[in-house]
Predict the structure.
Amino acid sequence: MLSGMNPMFDAFWRAVAYCLHPRVVALSLLPLVLMAVVALGLGYFFWDAAVAGMDAWLSSLALVERLSDWLGAIGLPGLRSVLAPVVVLGLVTPVLVVACLLAVAWLMTPSLVQLVGERRFASLQRRESASWWASVAWTLGATVLALLALLLSMPLWLIPPLVLVLPPLIWGWLTYRVFTLDALAAHASAAERQQILREHRLPLLAMGVLCGYLGAAPTLIWASGAMWVVLAPLLITLAVWLYTLVLAFSSLWFVHYALAALERLRAVPLDVPPPVSVSAAAAPSPLLDLPAP
């Protein structure tokens, strides 16, 4: 039954099962602790100043003042006070997402590749083609491009349909570029990696976009109501943990898919012409054996 399944869905359910592995659960705590310390430190030292500065800037906008007057007219004056914290959270979230993705890629993905390789692809030969520094450079380059795309696309977010399409698409592209390289770095040669990226680009991009939508889900925690703003440091920590779980699943999904694609690639025989027999090559041509006239 497994042989007839779509490779993407086959890798999906395997990634879900591996998320319950004790080693994966333990590894998921490492980025959580790191990001929790960073988030709590930023919240402790900069939260009040950031909210005050954002509130002062918003107060200078005529549109915000008209919005405040309208909220007061309909009996909801308290919503004006939560606008600045919500904006600050909205600006901090992408930075935390990127930092969490980098933490998972650098701390968890190599261990996850080793785990999947040992348990499922033990016979797959390792042809390491990308060093740790090459992986870091690749990740940083893709991250910079993704952040630039986010900044350039922000004006388009005001169009309701595009705000639901552009950010997950950009995060999906980033996830696809980062996790595919990390999944293949230890086992595939440079030529094999490029061939898999070329031949499986659409499935890998689709997986990245789906992971992007899954990564956007934790945002609903504090977007559901204004009362969550009071617990902003705790909510950021919880969101980072959820992001970590989603990204750990995403990493496992890409590892299973990429290594399975590499295994199938190596199983395909190369189109090599049959060797020429030495005796046949040395045999004289029948035309040369004709008697002379």
Notes: The chain has twelve helices and no strands. The first helix runs from residue 7 to 18.
